[in-house]
Structure formats: C-alpha cells, structure tokens
Amino acid sequence: MQREEKQQDAVLEAVISRVNDLKTSIGAMIFKVENEYETLNWPNFLDNFALISGQLTSLTKILSNEKAPALRNFTVLPLMLKPDLDENLARVTEGRLTTFSHDIVPDYLRTKPEPDAELKMMQLEHKANCVTYETAQKQVAAMNKVVGHVWDLVNKAREEWESEAGSRSGAAQTFSLTDTPLLVAAISMGKGLKHTVAPGAMMGGPPPGPQRGPGALGPPQGPPGGIPGQMGPMGKAPSAIKTNIKAAGQMHPYR
Amino acid sequence: MNEMGVTTNSAFLCLFTSASAFGSPIVQMAQQTVNTAIDSLSAALKSNIIPNQEYFLQGSILDSSVEVLLHRLRGLCDNVDTTLETFHDHEMCFSIRGPNNAQPALQLRVRRSLDHNGMPMQLRYIGQPEIGDKSRPTVLRNSIDIGTSNTVVEFLTELGCRKDFEYLAKGYMFRKGRMKITVFKVFKIDETRKMSGGAFESLTALTHSYLVELSVLAPSGQDAIADDMRCFAEQLRPLVQLEKIDYKRLVHGP
After folding, report:
1. Residue ranges of region Disordered (chain A) (predicted)?
2. What is the ipTM for the molecules in this complex?
C-alpha cells in the first residue's frame, strides 16, 4: 500500500510539473499573439504549436507509464465545501481559486464533458456510424489524393527556389569545348596549319585539291594528291617528283 | 694509352675477384672509370635516370578569361617572383619516311625562340601518346630532346626530312616543382612572310583561345607524378579543364 502511495505521489508530481510547463507555453503563445501580432509570421507561430505538442506527448508518456497507477481508478471527492475565502487555496493556485464552494465543484471536478460539448460529440458519433464502409473508403482516398497534390505543389515550388539560388552562380564559360581539340590537333598534326599553296606558285605540281584545306593532315594520311611538303611559302615551285633526297642547291628559308 | 688500359683492366679484375663481386651495377659503375660516351649513355639508360617520358594534360581557355588564369597561376606557381615569363617560339615539324613509303613517318620537331636569337634550337622527338584508361590520370608519351645549333634545319633537310607544318607559339610559362605549365596562343604563319630570317609579317591566330599544357618530363616508371598533376589540374577548374585529349581520334573528326 505504501509503495502504491509513493508511486502515486511520484506520478502526481511528474504530472503536475508537466502540466505547469504546458501552461507556461500556452501562456507564452497567447502573449505572442496578443502583443507581437505585427511582426509574427506563420513559421514562428508554428513553433509554439510544436512546443505544446511536445509537452503533451511527454505528459501522455508519463501517464501511460507502467509504474503510473491508472488514474481513472481514483476519484476525487470534496470533503468540505465552504463559501468562505481560503487563503491556502489561493496561495496554492496562484490566486486563481479563492473559495472552494458549491459553484466550482461541477466545473473543476467534472468527469464527463459539458452538456453542449457532449451533445455535439454525440451528433458526430452518430454521423460517423451512419457512413458505410465504402463511402468511408472513398472519402479517405479522396483526401489522400488531395494531400498528395498539395505535397507535390509544395515540393516543386521548393525545388524551383533552390535551383534558382544555385543557378545564379552562372555558367560563365571560360573555355570553349571546340577550341581545345582544334588547338591540340593543330600542334600535334598540323591540322589547319598547312597552308594551301597559292595556285600561281605551283607550276609543276598538280593543283591542290579542296581536301588540302583545313582537313589537311600529316604524312600518315598518305599522299593526298602527291604534293610534297611545302618548303615554305616562297613561291618556288616544288618538284612534282616525290623524292626524299633534296637537291643541295635548294634555298633554305631560314638563311 | 695501352698501359692505362691495362692498368684499368687489372683493376676491374680485382673487382670481380674480390668479395664484392656481387655488387649492384651502380656500385660497379661508380668504381669503374667511364671510358666512352657510349658507356655513359648505356649506364644512364640502365639506371633509368634519363627523363624520356613526358606526362601531360591539355586544355584551353578563351582569350577573354586568360587574365584570370594567369593570375591564378601566379598564385600557385613558383617562378613568378618578378614578372611573368613569356616565350615566343617558332616550331617546325619535320617528318621522314622509311623506304617504300612506310606509313608511320618519323616526326621530329625543331623549336627556336624568336625572343632570344642566340639561344640554341631544340630538336625533339615525340612518340605516340598513350592515353591509357581511367586509372591513368595523364597522357604519357616518349619525348627526347636535345639542343642544337641553328644549322639543324639544313641538316634535317639534307637527311631527307620534309617540313610538314609550322606555327608560332606565343605565351607564358610557369613552373611548379617538376611541372611545367604553358599558356600560349598558336599562330598560323601566312605566306606573305619575310624571308630574311626575322620578322613574320602577318600572323593569324588559329582560334580565339589559348592552349594550356601541363607537362612533366620524367624517367619511365614514375607514375606517381601523374597524380600530383591531376591534383594541380583540379585547382585550375572550372577556369580551364585540363584533361587527356586523344588527338588521334581528332584525325577522323570533321
């Protein structure tokens, strides 16, 4: 018995502290709404609700704890009712209750909901019982669909905002993807560097075909037109005969 | 001379008969007197100290952004105490074919500086590049170069080489450790060029970009340097994308 009493006391203490916290946070929320309504925005306001919900959760946890005796098994009975001022009561309840009289008993020691509230609950319950299973399913499905749509909308909006912030850093192209291969080909194989010999200067050799333009490649390509390599743009006619040994008397461009 | 030869030979024999007969080739080389250039060359080849491999990466950058790149390189590289090192080179590519029109012609490059006329010219052989796979961060190719006098062009022509193409490279050179970074513009030499071995009259730039090359010359087998190069290349992003470019695939492009 004593153990149970001790347990009871402990649980009651815990419940009281939690309830006090809850009271404080509700009070803070009301204060915020009343005084700071000009600067308040929805996310900040939602924080209050989050806090309250957390506190309610912890309260529920305590009550559903194994060690907590089921409070519904206990009843609170008023032992004495006086219409006089009770200072002790006033002190304990921080001035909210001054007399423990007959008027307040129905409100504070209530176990059933108020008559109005009870009536409304009865109506709702009645309505819920009338709905058939299929209708209920359909309604649930419809609600899920609507929520899904709203979810998609919100997600898309968020992605747009985020990508907008990211793409502002820009794709300032500092290099050209086409130029790199061009340059590499030029210095490795002379692509684009082999100058087309002026037709006037080429007297002996066959005229340079159109393939001799920017598509001209190095010797590994085979002899496109049998034109021997330029000895420099000197206007001298290179001989048409492909020999590897050049005449000694040929003028050197770098002398 | 013969006596000298005999004495040295007996010294060798002592070496071989002594306890350290099982010494490494390098130790033996250190103890023997090198007689000829061939000996020193083969010794160098054996001990793998000749930097005949080039690891390199290439990329390009638009003319408009080249200043930014130069600033960044100045911050990263070593040789920029005072001013930027520029270079203005004329490179010619010669090739010579084997008998019977053997397909892969041997390509040799001659490079000379237009800024410093007294400097020797450089004759270089560049082999086929090995692109490798994803595990290889850089392109690898054989590269052997040597300084020559300014008669090298005539020499090559007498040998039978043919000039394939030439271009002008004008740009900046940076160094970081063993790595060399060059940022240069390639110019095509027009035909209306003066012949008096000096000024090039009209040049046209090939593209509106500068070519950026990151290269390291190293003996074969030092693949770790490729990873360092890749790390350095990462630092130049997104300004310039230094990567492996397979120019052989570019042959068949448009």
Report:
1. 199-238
2. 0.73
Comparing CA positions, the residue from B108, B204, B106, B208 lying closest to residue A195 is B204
Dist CA A232 CA B2 (whole Å): 53
Does residue A254 belong to the interface with chain B, where contact is any CB pair within 8 Å? yes
Using CA atoms, how far residue A27 sits from A19, A31, B142, in Å, is 12, 6, 82
Q: Which of residues 11-50 of B touch A (CB under 8 A)?
A: none
Compute the distance between CA of residue A147 and CA of residue A141 in angstroms, rounded to an integer: 10
Q: Topology of domain A1-74, per CATH?
A: Methane Monooxygenase Hydroxylase; Chain G, domain 1 (1.20.58)
- From the CA of A186, how many Å to the nearest CA of chain B? 8
Q: What is the pLDDT of residues A82-141, one digit of tens each?
A: 888 888 888 888 778 888 888 888 888 887 888 888 899 999 999 888 888 888 899 999
Instruction: Classify A200 in phi/psi space as left (phi over 0), alpha (psi -120 to 50) or beta.
Output: alpha
**How far apart are alpha carbons B237 and B199 in whole angstroms?**
37
Q: Give me the DSSP letters along chain B.
A: -HHHHHHHHHHHHHHHHSGGGG--HHHHHHHSPP-SHHHHHHHHHHTT-S--EEEEEEEEEEGGGHHHHHHHHHHH-SS-SSS-EEEEEEEEEEEE--GGG-SS-EEEEEEEESS-TTSPEEEEEE---B---TT--SEEEEEEEEEE-TTHHHHHHHHT-EEEEEEEEEEEEEEETTEEEEEEEEEEEPS---SSSS----EEESSSEEEEEEEEEE-TT-THHHHHHHHHHHHTTTT---B---HHHHHT--
Q: Which tens digit of pLDDT belongs to each residue from A164-193?
A: 776 665 566 777 778 888 888 888 888 777
